[in-house]
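I am still getting used to backbone structure tokens and would like to learn alongside you. Label the sequence line and the structure token line clearly, so we can match residues to local backbone shapes. Go ahead whenever you are ready, and we will take it from there:
>
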Amino acid sequence: MVLAGPERRTSARRTPPPAAASAAPPAAPPAAPSAGAPATPPTTPRRTGIAPGLVLAAVGVAASYGVHRLLPAVPMLTAAVVLGVVAAHLPGAAGLVRGPARPGLSLAGKRLMRLGIVLLGLKLSLGDVAALGWEPLVMVVGVVLVTFFGTRWLGRRIGLSGDLSLLVATGYAICGASAIGAVSGVLGKDKADERHETEVASSVALVTLCGTLAIAVLPLLQHPLGLDTGEFGRWVGASVHDVGQVVATAQTAGPDALTEGVLVKLIRVAMLAPLVAGVALSRRRKTAGQPAAADGRRPAILPLFVAGFLAMVALRTTGWLGTGVLDAADTAQELLLAAALFGLGSAVHLPTLARSGGLKLGLLGLGSWLVVGATAYAGVLLTA
């Protein structure tokens, strides 16, 4: 009897360890949800997590600048996206690009792209647009509409997704990668949507490739198509995607062609805001009654960065900014877009792209390139 008590007390003392052991697993589940949910504790790891990607993007910008200095015919932004694709496939760098550097590169491809789009507005003055007259304005609007809706129709016929066709159509119709980045921001996609990120990167790579080819191809067609210097500049401005690519292409025909090309191109850039607003409004109507993203928010009809773009256009129109300020803003805009394009290019995985409709995407790019080139050529002849 006396021994039974200690035995009970001893067994009672032995039971807590299993209880403690069984209490340990329940303590683990709270850690699991906090790791997977967007809670505030992981902020410090996230900050350190974006640093490798931002540093790599800065290295990519420096390398793309070096390429442009060595080969002036290659625009810095074109070099940035190509180097991003290369970095994603180099044996030594691929692990870094898809691993520790991925958060920072994704941030560069989205946030820095939007800052660059805002500063892009400082290139455009409403006075310059009005000075061209109504005929070039009508031509540009016609080229943008035909290219946009023609590319979307062609993408559906080929069998590509609606979002991918929309991104490509926007890039070809307006201003290349900047327009793609603007429209992707109003589609209401989840930030962790890898498929959407791949579609954006593939669209940017495709539009950049065609714009780069235009630098070499279009000057060869000037005389066979019977275009004088001013007509060639307007044709380039209405059909080539990125502003830098327009400059590189039009300057081959002289300063007059360069002036005409840049002005016509900036009218296309001005179409960015109404097109983004139209896409956002259409998306809101299609997704009525269901959340457009995981957080339940719907894309704004006029996103903040597009409003910033319009504000910069208005600021440039006032004439308050001096040449030094505009030059500094132009440099900052190019650096931001270069970092963003490097980040987007690094998201392109060519084997996956080839398996998931790379041939169809190439056909869409070629078809859209022919549409914008032919429509712009017809517009130049009609308004000559």
